[in-house]
Design brief:
The protein has helices at residues 5-10, 12-15, 21-29, 42-52, 85-96, 114-118, 131-144, 172-175, 188-191, 197-214, 260-263, 280-288, 302-307, 318-324, 342-353, 365-372; strands spanning 32-36, 56-60, 101-105, 123-126, 148-154, 157-163, 223-228, 233-238, 277-278, 294-298, 333-337, 359-362. It is α/β, with parallel strands linked by helices. Helix 4 runs parallel beside helix 5 (85-96). It is elongated.
């Protein structure tokens, strides 16, 4: 794997590093990386790996660019809104370094395609934001003996590690044997994230990849790095391989990929409407015609209500519902609204447990209202 004169100029600051040099840069050029996700974490990962001269970079992403992505997903620009993230990522990467081979995978990674996607690459980097994909990525990497460079972010906190049982360390399941109950951990869309945070964690992941490529330095194998942006503090936890781990332990029971949506307790939505759900059109009818006797409640938090709300819909935050549900009439019919429908679904389940028979969730929440009913209501 030789470097041409243009590459020698481009990577000169690497070449004069004693721990990289010409030999190390050739190794970087000879390394292939699969980046799962071209979002908040995938952006700095892909940008810095491309700039560093990684030889082959695969991008797995099925999503399109949204305005709400631009606060942190620096692979994409305003002009890319509505375009596939993978394609937008490729254009940005090649603008930084046309020497990098970019391979696009416009698909969702699943149990059916994960092994085929991962097998051709040397290193896998996890830039995802959901538990089924994290467990799937972990298990596929363990089965194929590929290093899994992990990162996650939420609000002001992030964490990073390198899961590689074949290098003597633990896997993701050793750290988190079971996923949290569905809805227990909000997504970034529900809980928010500081825009610069994925840049910090993604750069740490990119650093680990380059160290893996050149074979130098102390890796985050067996270590979990925790970062708190508000306090500007790093902490480190030592991780040990679990001998009882079902995939990397002494007697593994997982020998092929499983149904990760089911494992994480996520029930797929049926094709038809869910009995306990209504559309924003049905909600509008209830607001327009008081004779129907239906009340709509917003269960988001006050700071969200300040950003966007619907006239005539009072606020009863989910965080206060357990203390204040006695203020509600159990014989009244209620439609519950949140941002995208997740928290309001939980609120419906809670109220049903308390004896409320006539409560329904507004599907896709206030975002759907903004898109389908009233665009003057901001979508955030």
């Amino acid at each position: 794997m030789e470097l041409n004169n243009d590459e020698i100029r481009r990577y000169s600051r690497h070449l004069i590093l004693p721990d990289v040099g010409l030999a190390g840069q050739k190794k970087i050029k000879g390394t292939s990386v699969l980046c799962i996700g071209a979002g908040g974490l995938g952006s700095p990962i892909a940008l810095y790996l491309a700039a560093a001269g990684i030889g082959k970079l695969g991008i797995v992403d099925f999503d399109t660019v949204d305005y709400s992505n631009l606060q942190r997903q620096i692979l994409h620009t305003d002009a890319d809104v509505g375009q596939p993230k993978a394609q937008s990522a490729k254009e940005t990467i090649q603008g930084i370094n046309p020497n990098v081979e970019v391979v696009l995978h416009h698909t969702r990674i699943t149990s059916e395609n994960a092994l085929g996607l991962i097998r051709p690459y040397d290193i896998v980097v996890d830039g995802t934001d959901n538990f089924p994909t994290r467990y799937l990525t972990n298990d596929a990497c363990v089965l194929l003996k590929k290093p899994n460079v992990y990162g996650s972010i939420f609000r002001f906190e992030g964490q990073a590690s390198v899961f590689a049982p074949h290098l003597g360390g633990p896997c993701y399941r050793c750290l988190y044997p079971e996923p949290p109950p569905p809805g227990m951990v909000p997504s970034c869309a529900e809980g928010g994230v500081l825009g610069v945070l994925p840049g910090i964690i993604g750069c740490i992941q990119a650093t680990e990849i380059l160290k893996l490529a050149i074979g130098r330095g102390g890796l985050l194998v067996g270590r979990l790095l925790l970062f708190n942006a508000l306090d500007m503090k790093f902490r480190e936890l030592k991780l040990r391989r679990d001998p009882e781990c079902p995939i990397c332990g002494e007697h593994p029971t997982i020998k092929e990929l499983i149904d990760y949506e089911q494992f994480c307790g996520i029930v797929p939505e049926p094709a038809a409407g869910i009995p306990d759900e209504v559309t924003v059109q049905e909600m509008k009818k209830a607001l327009d015609d008081p004779r129907l006797g239906i009340k709509v409640l917003d269960v988001r938090e006050p700071f969200e209500y300040e950003i966007a709300h619907i006239d005539g819909v009072p606020l009863l935050p989910m965080s206060q519902l357990r203390q204040r549900f006695t203020e509600l009439d159990p014989n009244q019919q209620y439609y519950l609204l949140c941002k995208v429908g997740a928290r309001s679904h939980q609120a419906v389940e809670f109220l049903r447990e308390q004896g409320f028979k006539y409560v329904k969730n507004v599907r896709d929440g206030i975002n759907a209202w903004s898109e389908e009913i009233d665009s003057n209501v901001p979508r955030y």
